[in-house]
Specification:
- Helix 3 runs antiparallel to helix 11 (about 230-240) and helix 14 packs antiparallel against helix 19 (about 395-420).
- This protein folds into 2 domains: about 1-260; about 265-460, no CATH class.
- The protein is globular, with a radius of gyration of 21 Å.
- The protein is built from 21 helices and 3 strands.
- By secondary structure, the chain is an all-alpha fold.
- The chain has helices at about 10-30, 35-55, 70-90, 90-95, 100-120, 125-140, 150-180, 185-190, 195-215, 220-230, 230-240, 240-255, 265-285, 290-310, 320-345, 355, 360-375, 380-395, 395-420, 435-450, 455-460, and strands at about 1-5, 60-65, 65-70.
- Strands 1-2-3 form a 3-stranded mixed sheet.
Length: about 450
C-alpha cells in the first residue's frame, strides 16, 4: 500500500517547523533571550513525539514512494525524538548565553530529522540525502566550541564522513546500474539475477557510509576524537542519535533490498560485528579519560547492535532485538553522558568519592555503566539476551559466543570507573549541573523500567 499524504510525515514536519521558526526567532532575539529558541525546539520535539506515538498505531504503508511507515520507522522516530529532547535538556546550562545558542538547538533538530529519514528511507537516493542531512549538522556541532581540540575533531569527522560518503555514492551508482532502479523493492527483485560479485562490491561500498554513521569498524576512527574534543553535550548526541538511524537503515536495506539468499552479506556483517565489539572493548581497557572510555564503549555497543543486522531475514527475532536494543542503548548511553556533564570533569580520578556528594548520581552512574555491560534488570540486559537468541536462531552461534566473551570482558573497564566513585579515602569537590543531574536520574530510572517492563514492550511491538 502506497500513498502521498503529507500528514504521514507529521513528526518530520514538526521538526522542520521547529527548525524554521527557531532560525527566524533566534535571528531577532538578543543573546540573553536565546533560551526562547530552546523552548520552541523543545515544543517541536514534544509535538513530533506525540505525532510519532499516534502514527505507530496505524497500518504499515509507504508514503511518497520512498518513505516507509512500519515498526522500524516508528521506533526510530520515537527513540530519536526522545533522545534529542534529552540532549536539549542537557544543553540548558552549557549552552546558556552562548553566542550561537539558538544555532545549537536548530542543528540538533536538523540532525534528528536526517536521522529519522535515514531509518525510514526505502530508496537509495533518499538514503543518500538523509546521510547528508544527518551528517552536516553533526560536523558543525563537533566544532561548536571553536577551540583547538574541537576544530581538530570536527575536521576529522568531516573528512572521514566526506570520504566514506563518496564511497557510498559509488556503491549507490553501482547498485542502481545492477538493479535498474533505486527503490528497495525493485533492487530486491533485480539484484538476485545480477552478477553476485558486482552486487557485493556495491553493497560493501554502500556499507562504508552507513558503518560510519553507526560508528562500527572500520569506520570508527572519528568517534574517540570527536567524543573527547567536542563539547560533552555534543559528544552525547553524536554517539547516540546518528547510530539509531544508521542501524535502522542497515536493517531495512538488508531486509528490503537484498535477495534472501545472500549468505555472503550475513557473514560479512557478522565478521564486522565481531571485530567492532572486540576492538571497542580492547581499546577501552586502559582509558583514563571518561569521555574516551565512553567513546570506545559506544564502538563496542555498535558491534552488539550489528548482530541482529547480520541475521536480518534469517530469524524473526532480528527486528524486535534491534528495535528494543536501540531504545535501551540510547537511554543508557545518554544517562552515562548526563553524569559526565553533571560532574563537568573528564579525568577518571576526578570521580573519586562522588557518592559522598550525591548518592543518587553515583547510583545512576552505576545503573548506566552496568547497564551497558548487560546486567539485569536493566534494558540493555534484555537487549543482549535477545541478541544472543537472534544470533543462535540466525545460524551464527559463534557470534553469540564472541558477544558473550566481550560482555564479560567489558566489566573490567566499567569497574575502573565505578569503584573510585564509592571511595572513602578521598573527598569530592565541585558543583553539579542540575538539569544534567536530573537527566541522569531519569535515564537510569528509564533503563530499569524498560528492562523490567520489557515483556510488555516486546508484546506491544
Amino acid at each position: 500500500m502506497m500513498r502521498e499524504n503529507p500528514a504521514d510525515l507529521l513528526p518530520e514536519l514538526c521538526l522542520l517547523g521547529g527548525v524554521v521558526i527557531g532560525l527566524l526567532t533566534g535571528s531577532f532575539l538578543p543573546r540573553a533571550r536565546q533560551w526562547i529558541v530552546a523552548v520552541l525546539c523543545t515544543a517541536a520535539l514534544a509535538a513530533g513525539l506525540v505525532a510519532a506515538a499516534l502514527a505507530a498505531r496505524r497500518a504499515d504503508t509507504m508514503t511518497f514512494g520512498a518513505f516507509m511507515l512500519d515498526p522500524v520507522t516508528h521506533v526510530t522516530r520515537i527513540v530519536v525524538l526522545a533522545s534529542a529532547l534529552l540532549v536539549l535538556v542537557l544543553a540548558l546550562v552549557p549552552m546558556r548565553g552562548h553566542r550561537r545558542e539558538s544555532e545549537f538547538y536548530v542543528l540538533v533538530l536538523l540532525a534528528a530529522l536526517g536521522t529519522i529519514t535515514l531509518g525510514a528511507a526505502s530508496d537509495l537516493l533518499v538514503l543518500v540525502a538523509a546521510y547528508l542531512l544527518a551528517g552536516i549538522p553533526g560536523y558543525a556541532l563537533a566544532g561548536f566550541g571553536k577551540d583547538a581540540r574541537g576544530t581538530e575533531a570536527a575536521l576529522k569527522y568531516f573528512l572521514m564522513g566526506a570520504f566514506l560518503g563518496i564511497l557510498m555514492l559509488v556503491g549507490v551508482t553501482l547498485l542502481y546500474g545492477l538493479g535498474r532502479g533505486t527503490g528497495y523493492g525493485m533492487l530486491r527483485t533485480e539484484l538476485g539475477a545480477a552478477q553476485g560479485g558486482a552486487v557485493m562490491v556495491g553493497v560493501v561500498l554502500l556499507l562504508a557510509g552507513l558503518l560510519f554513521k553507526a560508528g562500527a569498524v572500520p569506520a570508527h576512527f572519528w568517534i574517540p576524537d570527536v567524543t573527547e574534543g567536542a563539547p560533552p553535550v555534543v559528544a552525547a548526541f553524536v554517539t547516540t542519535v546518528p547510530k539509531i538511524g544508521a542501524f535502522a537503515a542497515l536493517y531495512r536495506f538488508a531486509v528490503e533490498a537484498l535477495a534472501p539468499d545472500m549468505d555472503d552479506w550475513s557473514l560479512l556483517a557478522a565478521i564486522i560485528a565481531a571485530a567492532t565489539m572486540t576492538l571497542g572493548n580492547l581499546a577501552a581497557f586502559m582509558q583514563n579519560n571518561v569521555r574516551r572510555l565512553l567513546a570506545y564503549s559506544t564502538i563496542s555497543q555498535a558491534g552488539y547492535l550489528l548482530v541482529p543486522v547480520a541475521v536480518a531475514g534469517r530469524t524473526d527475532l532480528a527486528e524486535p532485538t534491534l528495535l528494543f536494543f536501540l531504545a535501551a542503548y540510547a537511554i543508557t548511553n545518554l544517562g552515562a553522558f548526563a553524569v559526565v556533564i553533571a560532574v563537568g570533569r573528564d579525568d577518571l580520578a576526578a570521580y573519586a568519592a562522588l557518592a559522598r556528594r550525591s548518592r543518587l548520581l553515583a547510583a545512576s552512574l552505576v545503573v548506566c555503566l552496568l547497564g551497558l555491560v548487560g546486567t539485569p534488570p536493566t534494558a540493555v540486559f534484555v537487549g543482549k539476551l535477545l541478541m544472543f537468541g537472534a544470533a543462535l536462531d540466525g545460524g551464527h552461534p559463534w557470534l553469540a559466543v564472541v558477544a558473550a566473551v566481550n560482555s564479560v570482558a567489558s566489566v573490567f573497564y566499567y569497574l575502573r570507573w565505578i569503584v573510585p566513585v564509592f571511595s572513602r579515602a578521598a573527598t569530592w569537590e565541585g558543583t553539579l549541573d542540575r538539569p544534567a543531574q536530573w537527566t541522569a536520574y531519569l535515564a537510569a530510572a528509564g533503563s530499569l523500567v524498560l528492562g523490567i517492563g520489557s515483556g510488555v514492550a516486546l508484546t506491544m511491538g
